[in-house]
Each structure stands twice: as C-alpha cells, then as structure tokens.
Specification:
The chain starts with 14 loop residues before the first strand and ends with a helix. A 6-stranded parallel β-sheet has the order 1-8-5-4-2-3, sandwiched between helices. Helix 9 (265-277) crosses helix 10 and helix 13 packs across helix 14. The relative contact order is 0.11. It contains 14 helices and 8 strands. The chain folds into 2 domains: 3-183, Rossmann fold (3-Layer(aba) Sandwich), CATH 3.40.50; 188-388, Dehydroquinate synthase-like - alpha domain (Dehydroquinate synthase-like, alpha domain). It has helices at residues 25-32, 43-47, 52-60, 77-89, 101-115, 188-207, 213-236, 241-260, 265-277, 281-296, 301-310, 320-337, 354-364, 378-388; strands spanning 15-17, 37-40, 65-68, 94-99, 135-140, 152-156, 163-167, 175-178. With 389 residues, the protein is α/β, with parallel strands linked by helices.
Length: 389
Amino acid sequence: MNELSSLIPMRIPRALVGMNASEQIGGIGKELGARKALIVTDQGVNGAGLIKGAAESLQKAGIPFEIFDKCAESAPISLIKECASLIRNHGINMVVGIGGGSVLDLTKITTAVADHGGSSDLIFNSALIVKKDIITVLVPTTAGTGSEINSGALCTDDETHRKVVVRSTFLAADAAILDPALTLRLPPAITAETGMDALCHAIEAYTSAKANTVADMFAEKAIQLISRSIKAAYTDGPRNPEARYNMLLAASFGILGANSSSTYIVHTLSYPLGMMTHTSHGKACVLMLPYAMEFHLTSRLERFARIAELMGEPVQGLTTEEKAHKSVQIVKKLAADFGLPLKLSEIGLKQKDIPAVVDYVFQYYEVQLANNPRPINREDLKHILESAL
C-alpha cells in the first residue's frame, strides 16, 4: 500500500477511560442535552447489576430513563425494530448501550432506525443513513469487539439468519465509556473468547493489504496489551483490575487499527460459519485465525515475525521465517490454553458444508477479499477450510 497516494480513515469518538467511569454518564447526557434516556442492555447484564452506576448517574443528573433489556446474541432485526419503536413512542433522545458487542451493535442500529422514522430499510442499504439526532453512549462489559469505538455494526436477519453488516459514520457513538469495573466479573470463557477476537482485529489490521502507519500504531499496542494481560484476566479477572483495564484498551485499539486498515478472511469467514454452526462470532474468528495466518505467512513474513516479538515470544537467534511461524504457534497455543475450538469439526462443520461456505463468501463478501495480504480464489478458500476441518 502506498500511503502517500491513499486516504487512511481514522475516527476516535469522545471516550472516558477509568474505574467507575460509567458513573459519569448522567453528566455527559446533561452536557449533550439529554431530555429522556433509554438504557439498552440484556437480562444477564441487568441481572448482574452492571447498569446500576449508569442508572444512578442519570437519576442524579435529573434525566428520566427507561430500560430495554431484551437484547439477544447477534442483534436480531426484530428486536431492533421493537427497541426503535420504544424510542420513537416515548420521547427518548439519548440511548445508553451497556453490554457486549451484540448489545452495542443493536444500540447503534436501533438509534439509526429511530432517527429515520422507524424504517429498517437502512439496515440493508447504509447509504440511507443520512443523519444522527439521538445521543448515543456506549459502555462495553466485555473486552473484544471494540463496538463502542467502531462506526459499523452487525445484526441478524430473523428470516434468513444472514449476518448483515451496517456501516456509517452516523453509527459512531457520541461517547464511549471504558469502565474496567464492569468487566471484573466477566466469566473466564467469555474473557478468552472476546479477548481473542480483539487479537484477531489487531493481527488482521497489522497484516492486511491495507496496513499503514496509523493502523500499525494501534495494532501493535493492542497485540502487546493482549499478550501481556489476557491470561491474567482469564485466570484472576475479579482481582486484577489492571489486566481488565489493559484488555479494554486493547479491544478499542484493535478496532481502531482495523478501521484504519481492514480485517480480512478471518472475519469474513466468521459470518457463514456462525450462521451454519450457531457458533459465536468470537469463536469462529479465533478458530480461523491461525489457518489464515499460515496461508498468508509468506506474503507478510516480516510482519508476522514482528507479531511473535510483540507477543513476547523468545525469538533470539531465529530467522525471520522461523519467527513468523512462531506467531502462528503462539495463537494456536493461546486458543488451546483457553479451551477454544481449534478445528471446524469441533463446531459441527462437515466436509460437505465447505462448498456452501465458499459460495456464501464469494456471493456476499467478495469485495472484502481484496483486503487479504495475498490474492485468494475459491480453491484457496476451500484449502484453508479443509486445513481447519
């Protein structure tokens, strides 16, 4: 990529980072002109008391609010419509999303739908998103998707079960709150799954065909922070706020790197794999990451070698190629240490399913294949999937 002849996108929303930062939401809302708020979350987050700080902060600021806690995994469009209707019918002009990536994605798309008269057509045509009037504050309770920083969102068509990606600068939050206190009790399995998803963002951004200096800055730091902190967060999360803090930062840095560069076949494959096997986005990405790395290794040898160094692997005396192979080995070992699936057969995919996965990618996401470090055709993709089977 010739950076001098290319435009590098970079957008960082207003962010507040620190322990108990969510207790400042009322003040932010008041400053931005909030009249009535809606807290969007799921029953697990609500039941765990993780919206308490935000709720009390809104009360203190004199901002009345309601709660919508029906969010579900992968943000079904039916729930987006229901939530958007609530916003429009109850005079709400501020929405606070508190939860994992699905909650934050649903929040972003919902506010866009509500802002545009309740029409869900914009979900399938992002060009229809032309304004943003509703104040949006996003508060992650997991450290992985980076949705609080991202201006894209993922939802699910209830009828076809297809994953739909919605992208628009108007989806970006007015404020992102990174509060490690809300992630302290995150279960180990979700800690690993979401943290490794953040690692996928960073590695893909760093080795993508669109890699650039801006993306490198965020991606390198994300890789370092995750490698340094994910095991501590996994094994001792409730008593290690520093590890939780580092993982939240890494998730945001990882997606900032991906936004300025791109993800590639790892994330592209997560959509059909998730749809066909009912596997979560994070697990599907983590599973495919080492196989995609192996396929692209020779085209980005020095960068993959650098990843091994960033992850703290002892590489003294090794050749560049040996270092690069080390990066793949580390990723596989991390996934194994966390008990994450390493083979597609473990999530229920069969040999006979591979042609359908390939067809899906080339039907819906062929334009994204240009982001891969090396050109990829149907046979290449089939080979990658068979290697992972």
